[in-house]
């Protein structure tokens, strides 16, 4: 059974104080029984780009720790990269609460997988497909999980890197990015990524792209983490900042070019 | 078989702690024609004798492909077997849809066993009257499992179920230690020879003998009857297998004793 469906059932139990509509079976407060159904959400607390690249020993993911509340940079210690089981790493941009929900679904999935204790385990490909089913299913119900996800992992020597978004678009690639990263980081990846990069080369490439995003993406904060997944397992670095440079000539006398009439 | 006052309902225990309805269901398996399964390090083979109702009818279909990597041979109530195969196919396809990956055999077998167990604990359903030999391949290698109406499952290197399966098992017991290293074709030959032992009358030929294989690099497939006939013919040409002493078969039928018998109930082993 789809773990999400089981979760929905439990949610239904919790909503016992709400009334079920006779025709649609929809759970909602009594006063809203005859109003049109609307589920489409707006994201509230959002994370910005996540970057992912394959390298020699596995996959590297990078993201900052910002959680924006609209245009305010409200939360600055949001971990947007999480390990899933032994073989996978998940990174998310978009609504943070939906990401937390997804992590809960996946933790439960991995738990049941481990409970079999039979030598078989869900690898990154399987988790990616499961997430795709989950996201697409929610989209079809007009109640999406408002995220773009990056999933990387290694199993039996096979490296895997893919992405799924809130409407269920999914693909695998050697380098992926979410949000602004698609516009600012992917072109750099296309130029500079190559097969079998070392760990140092990979981190340098990611940091270069994170720097560009820091300068140009208004929702980026200067506190980032790099996560690595190899056959041995997953590690997520401690948060750190990258050096930015503001000593440009134009910034020294900002009023120089601003000629006004009064 | 002795009738007694505790065997009407599957939900009635006997004083000796047995569920007679379940044991009777296992008898139904023993009435079905023989099915044999054997496993090497790389392949699993299923061989069955398919009875025909009359000269004009087709032979019983006893082997079902469940997925590219799993197949099953049945013995007992064919209709029950068909329904369970459909359920297994549905489970496999659902897993594939969710995870884009083949369902591990062991997990399918456990799900099947749980399904069978349900019928041993409801007063409105009867136990399934079919035994299954599940042959499959997953990332931990090739596997052969047996599923019982009791809801038990066991993994085997080689096994036989159905009528006169003891004869087939005797042959397998002699040879099973060589199976891990056998090639695919040797394994098939061993399977056909062991099934020959379980044949009461008539000759084994390409029509009444179903053979199926699954292995590393080979999806589950049933051999063509011509191919089977060729192997059977080649076995007759080779005189290197001396005739097997068929073990006496009395111990097999009528295994259900009445309550006073102290032997362990079959499902408890």
UniProtKB/TrEMBL annotation, chain A:
Swiss-Prot/TrEMBL keywords: Cytoplasm, Nucleus, Proteasome
Biased composition (Basic and acidic residues): 1-14
Pfam families: Proteasome (PF00227)
Listed CDD domains: proteasome_beta_type_4 (cd03760)
Domain of life per record: Eukaryota
Segments for region (Disordered): 1-20
UniProt xrefs under InterPro entries: Ntn_hydrolases_N, Proteasome_alpha, Proteasome_beta4, Proteasome_bsu_CS, Proteasome_sua/b, Proteasome_suB-type
Main location: cytoplasm
Biological process per Gene Ontology, one example term: proteolysis involved in protein catabolic process
Subcellular location: Cytoplasm; Nucleus
GO cellular-component term (any): proteasome core complex, beta-subunit complex
Listed Gene3D superfamilies: Glutamine Phosphoribosylpyrophosphate, subunit 1, domain 1 (3.60.20.10)
Cross-referenced PANTHER family: PROTEASOME SUBUNIT ALPHA/BETA
Function: Non-catalytic component of the proteasome.
Family of the protein in this entry: Belongs to the peptidase T1B family.
Name the record gives this protein: Proteasome subunit beta
Species this chain originates from: Picea sitchensis
TrEMBL record, chain B:
BP-aspect Gene Ontology terms: ubiquitin-dependent protein catabolic process
Pfam families, per database record: Proteasome, Proteasome_A_N
Xref: SUPFAM superfamilies: N-terminal nucleophile aminohydrolases (Ntn hydrolases)
Source taxon at top rank: Eukaryota
Cytoplasm among keywords: yes
Subcellular location: Cytoplasm; Nucleus
Gene3D superfamilies named in the record: Glutamine Phosphoribosylpyrophosphate, subunit 1, domain 1 (3.60.20.10)
SUBUNIT field: The 20S proteasome core is composed of 28 subunits that are arranged in four stacked rings, resulting in a barrel-shaped structure. The two end rings are each formed by seven alpha subunits, and the two central rings are each formed by seven beta subunits.
Name the UniProt record assigns to this protein: Proteasome subunit alpha type
Source organism of this protein record: Picea sitchensis (Sitka spruce)
């Amino acid at each position: 059974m789809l773990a999400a469906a089981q979760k929905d059932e439990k949610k239904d139990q919790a909503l016992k104080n709400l009334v079920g509509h006779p025709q649609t079976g929809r759970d909602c407060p009594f006063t809203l029984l005859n109003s049109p159904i609307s589920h489409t959400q707006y994201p509230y607390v959002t994370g910005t780009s996540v970057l992912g690249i394959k390298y020699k020993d596995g996959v590297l993911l990078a993201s900052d720790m910002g959680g924006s509340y609209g245009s305010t940079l409200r939360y600055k210690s949001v971990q947007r990269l999480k390990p899933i089981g032994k073989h996978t790493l998940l990174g998310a941009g978009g609504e943070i609460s939906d990401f937390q929900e997804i992590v809960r679904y996946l933790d439960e999935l991995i738990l049941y997988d481990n409970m079999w204790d039979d030598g078989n385990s869900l690898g990154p490909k399987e988790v990616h497909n499961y997430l795709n089913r989950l996201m697409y299913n929610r989209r079809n119900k007009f109640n999406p999980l408002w995220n773009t996800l990056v999933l990387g992992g290694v199993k039996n020597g096979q490296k895997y890197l893919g992405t799924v978004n809130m409407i269920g678009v999914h693909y695998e690639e050697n380098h992926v990015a979410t949000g602004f990263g698609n516009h600012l980081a992917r072109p750099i990846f296309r130029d500079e990524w190559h097969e079998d990069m070392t760990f140092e080369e990979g981190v340098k490439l990611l940091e270069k792209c994170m720097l560009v995003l820091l300068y140009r993406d208004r929702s980026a904060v200067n506190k980032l983490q790099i996560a690595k997944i190899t056959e041995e397992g997953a590690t997520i670095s401690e948060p750190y900042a990258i050096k930015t440079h503001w000593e440009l000539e134009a910034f020294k006398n900002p009023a120089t070019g601003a000629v006004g009439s009064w | 078989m002795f009738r007694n006052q505790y065997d009407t309902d599957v939900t009635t225990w006997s004083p000796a702690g047995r569920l007679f309805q379940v044991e009777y269901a296992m008898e139904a398996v023993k009435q079905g024609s023989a099915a044999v399964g054997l496993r090497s390090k790389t392949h699993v083979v299923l061989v069955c004798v398919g009875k025909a109702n009359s000269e004009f009818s087709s032979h019983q279909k006893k082997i079902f492909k469940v997925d590219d990597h799993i197949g099953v041979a049945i013995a007992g109530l064919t209709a029950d077997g068909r329904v369970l195969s459909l359920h297994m196919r549905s489970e496999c396809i659902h897993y594939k849809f969710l995870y884009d990956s083949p369902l591990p055999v062991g997990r399918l077998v456990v799900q099947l066993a749980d399904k069978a167990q349900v019928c041993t604990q409801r007063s409105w359903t009867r136990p399934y009257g079919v035994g299954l030999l599940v042959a499959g391949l997953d990332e931990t290698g090739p596997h052969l499992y047996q599923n019982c109406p009791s809801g038990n499952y066991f993994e085997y290197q080689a096994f036989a179920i159905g009528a006169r399966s003891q004869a087939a098992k005797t042959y397998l017991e002699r040879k099973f230690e060589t199976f891990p290293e056998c090639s695919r074709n040797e394994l098939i030959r061993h399977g056909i020879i062991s099934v020959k032992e379980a044949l009461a009358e008539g000759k084994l030929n390409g029509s009444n003998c179903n053979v199926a294989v699954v292995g590393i690099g080979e999806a589950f497939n049933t051999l063509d009857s011509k191919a089977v006939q060729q192997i059977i013919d080649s076995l007759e040409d080779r005189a290197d297998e001396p005739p097997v002493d068929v073990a006496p078969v009395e111990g097999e039928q009528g295994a259900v004793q009445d309550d006073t018998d102290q032997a362990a109930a079959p499902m408890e082993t």
